[in-house]
Amino acid sequence: MSSATALRRNSDLGTALEEARAAYAAARPRSAALHERASEVMPGGNTRSVLAYGPFPTAMARGEDCRLWDLDGHAYLDLCGEYTAGLFGHSEPRIHKALHATLEGGINLAAVGQGEERLARLLCGRFPSLQRLRFTNSGTEANLMALTAARGFTGRNTIMVMQGGYHGGVLTFPLAGPSPATLPLPFLPTPYNDSAEATRRPAPMRRTRPPSSSSRCWAAAAAFRQRRNSSPRCAPWPTRPAPC
Fold it and tell me: Which secondary-structure segment (H or E) carries 162?
C-alpha cells in the first residue's frame, strides 16, 4: 500500500483511533496483563479514577529524576509531576534524606508530632490568608470537611455549586445532570459565569470552582467573581483554579 493510500485511509477519524488503540495495546502487554489482574480485585482495576483510561492505563515501574519507565520498558519524560504534587521529580536528594530519616524513626506512631506543627507554621507564614489549618488525605476529604464546617458555622444547609464543576470523587456536578456518585447533600446547581442567575437563587452557601476536565479549565469572569464575593447572601468561599 502506498503512503498516499495509507494517508487517505487514516483520514477517517474512527479508523485512525482504532489503529492508535491497537498500537498502544500491542506495545504494552505487561500493563494490559496487570490491568486484567487488578480488575479482578479492584473496580476498574485501580483506586484513583483520574488514572483510569482506555483501553487500559500504562503501569509505571519506576521513576528517576524527570523520567519514568513503564512495565514494558518504555521511557517517558514526566511532565505531569503528580498533578503538581511531585514537582521535584523522583530523585531529589533532600527529599530522599528526609524520607529515610523519617523511616528510621517510625512513620505511624499514633500520636501528634513535631513535623505537622512545622509544616503548618511554614504554610501559615507563607500564605497570609491562612490563620490555622488542618491536614487531610485528599482534596475530596478537605472539601467534605470544609462543607461540614461551613454548614455548621452559617446555619445554612443548601450549597450552591456550579454546573460542570468538580470538587472530588463524591462531589461531581456534570452538565448533563446529577451524578449518582455525588453525596446526597442539598446542592443547588447553577450555571457557571452567570452572575445574574446566581444572585436570583435562594441564599445558600456558595462553592465556586471553574468547570474542568482532565485537559482544560475555564476561568471565572471578573464580574462573576466580584458578584459572588461581594454578595451579602453568601458565606465567602475561595475560588481556586481547576487542575488541568
Answer: strand 159-162
